[in-house]
Design goal:
The structure holds 2 protein chains of 2 kinds. Chain A is about 35% helix and about 40% strand. Chain A starts with a helix and ends in a 6-residue tail after the last helix. By secondary structure, chain A is α+β, with helices and mostly antiparallel strands. The radius of gyration of chain A is 23 Å and the shape is flat. In chain A, strands 2-14-13-4-7-10 form a 6-stranded mixed sheet. A 4-stranded antiparallel sheet of chain A has the order 1-3-12-11, with helices on one face. In chain A, helix 5 (about 215-225) packs across helix 6 (about 225-245). Chain B is built from 10 helices and 5 strands, in the order ββαααααββαααααβ. Chain B is globular. Chain B starts with a strand and ends with a strand. Helices cover about 70% and strands about 5% of the residues of chain B. In chain B, helix 4 (about 80-105) runs parallel beside helix 8. In chain B, a hairpin with a 4-residue loop joins strand 1 and strand 2. Chain B is mainly alpha-helical. The chains are: A alpha+beta, B mainly alpha.
Chain lengths: ~250, ~300
């Protein structure tokens, strides 16, 4: 609750700053936008986070915001019944899949722009350009593509719906970018588009870093770089914990 | 209260984890088995990635076994010589197991193998224990306590490399505990279990050890096998979540203490039948899940 209020406050302050900026937007830049924070820290109590994006345009128009996480390869497997039990039978590996994808728009996408623009800018999951490690996605691979998107949506790393962008007047806009508790870490790309007459006329990119911080970050980092020592420490910790736990019951 | 697990990369309710650890510890206290066979499936069920669940269960097991062995050691119920030989086998087995685990994971078949192992093992053992338990229960009803031979002599006693185990009152081939340890080592690595529920019956029925020294000796060797598995998983697969293991351990130790007291009040044969039913229930559930048409035919996993 408190964090949400802080965000709202930051948003208002930012909007106030925008008001003075919008003069600037009117003069040269058609689109100016920023995030209330460029860093989301994942700590022990992390249950998800949201960041406010705010900005101004130099006149009427629609705004679309796309958030993409760092890319990785994902194996999609299809189960088949073999001798009565279900086993993973066929595998396709997609490459360059964003580890996170969400999109927000001031109005429905199909109203404000054309299919060509949707495809070119990868607006929406249907227009994500995905490739297989062995080549382009062909017609017969489409079920795997659909399955990839569906599983990522189930994991909450692909947004199921298009988020809202609110306009204050016809120049100032803001939206809240939400991230689930299992959000992948890395450097994200937040891209803001200005659309007029169904065409993207301006775009701006701003980075967002999602990183483990504090003790958890150190544990994860340690586990990765000093795997053997981490394993030994994990064992030693468990042994000491087991021994300590039996002490109070020693005379029982 | 949610806690973020740095390796599993999910936030889970700390009280759910404590309760899960407690329930498993309780069972291990009552029945004298580790309870890993319940822990791993439940962790997967609440959202821990299967590979992390397996490796972290092994980590948790180290602590739980230390706690258990200390209690048995005080009463002199640990056969260190037997444990040591089981251990050598266990060490070799876990080396093979962790290697297999990595390969199966890359092939996308690790979950299938984990499930199959659980169904086969739990199904067989549950059935055997149920038959055995019911038989003794019926026999003790009909006529007092029957006099039993320490153990039957079979082909097993013809194997070479015979050794004397004083504490266990046995003179058997060292190959037996070595092979048994090896098998359990593989299971530990692949399933994240200590193998107590395999080890305990095998020690009683296969090796012919006195029931008294079985839990302590089994736990003693599990410490080292689980420790080996933990370190190897950390190196090869980076799947050990020490934080998860620690939280489970806190719940587990408390549960075990309560369980031990409960166990002392219940009758042995009834206890065994209850355990058999529990084991069978888990096996049936897993088996049914494997044959039922899944909601999702497709699954996705990041390529490492």
């Amino acid at each position: 609750m408190r964090r949400a209020r802080q965000h709202a406050l930051a948003g208002i302050l930012a909007l106030a700053a925008c008001l003075s900026l919008s003069g600037g937007a009117a003069r040269g830049e058609p689109l100016v936008a920023d995030l209330t924070s460029h860093l989301i820290g994942i700590t022990g109590a992390f249950t998800g986070a949201s960041v406010v994006l705010f900005g101004a345009t130099d006149g009427p128009g629609d705004v679309v915001v796309v958030v993409r996480g760092p890319e990785h390869d994902v194996a999609v497997r299809r189960k088949r019944r073999v001798a009565g039990i279900w086993v993973n039978a066929k595998e396709e590996v997609f490459t360059g899949v964003p580890s996170f994808y969400s999109i927000a728009s001031s109005r429905p996408l199909d109203i404000i722009t054309t299919p060509a623009e949707l495809g070119f800018n990868e607006f929406g999951l249907n227009y994500l350009r995905l490739k297989l490690t062995r080549g382009a996605v062909r017609e017969e691979d489409m079920p795997f593509r659909a399955a990839l998107i569906e599983t990522q949506q189930r994991d909450k790393v692909f947004a199921e719906t298009v988020g809202r962008i609110d306009f204050l007047g016809d120049r100032l806009f803001s939206t809240t970018l939400r991230f689930p508790s299992n959000v992948p870490t890395g450097t994200y790309e937040v891209k803001i588009f200005l659309i007029r007459n169904k065409v993207v006329v301006s775009a701006q990119t701003t980075p967002l870093v999602i990183a483990k911080i504090g003790v958890d970050a150190e544990i994860a980092d340690f586990a990765d770089r000093r795997a053997a020592i981490y394993g030994l420490v994990a064992v030693a910790t468990a042994m000491v914990a087991g021994w300590l736990a039996s002490v109070p019951f020693r005379n029982a | 209260m949610e806690i973020y697990l740095p390796i599993a990369e999910v936030s889970l309710d700390v009280f759910v984890l404590l309760a899960l650890g407690g329930a498993v510890g309780f069972l291990s206290g009552v029945f004298g088995v580790g309870g890993g066979f319940l822990l791993t499936p439940f962790l997967i069920f609440i959202g821990v990635p299967p590979a992390v669940a397996v490796a972290s269960s092994a980590n948790q097991l180290v602590g739980a076994s230390v706690s258990g062995v200390l209690a048995h050691w005080k009463r002199g119920n640990v056969d260190f010589k037997m444990g040591g030989i089981l251990l050598v086998g266990g060490f070799l087995g876990s080396l093979l197991g962790v290697w297999l685990f990595g390969i199966l994971r890359r092939l996308g078949q690790i979950e299938l193998v984990i499930n199959l192992c659980f169904v086969i093992l739990l199904g067989t053992l549950g059935a055997l224990m149920l038959v055995e338990g019911t038989r003794t229960l019926l026999r003790s009803r009909r006529m007092g306590v029957p006099r039993r031979k320490l153990h039957q002599h079979t082909w097993i006693h013809g194997l070479p490399l015979k050794m004397r185990f004083r504490r266990s009152k046995l003179y058997i081939s060292a190959l037996l505990p070595l092979g048994l340890g090896f098998l359990i080592g593989i299971l530990s690595a692949i399933m994240g279990i200590g193998g107590g529920f395999v080890m305990v019956p095998a020690m009683i029925y296969l090796l012919g050890m006195p029931t008294m020294v079985v839990p302590g000796t089994s736990l003693f060797q599990i410490i080292f096998v689980a420790a080996t598995v933990t370190v190897l998983q950390a190196i090869n697969n980076r799947t050990v979540d020490a934080m998860l293991a620690l939280v489970l351990l806190v719940g587990g130790v408390l549960g075990a203490q309560i369980g031990t007291r409960m166990g002392a009040k219940l009758r042995g044969d009834q206890l065994r039948i209850m355990l058999a039913v529990l084991v069978l229930a888990v096996a049936v559930k897993l088996a049914v899940d494997m044959t039922v048409t899944p909601d999702q035919l497709y699954s996705a996993a990041p390529v490492l």
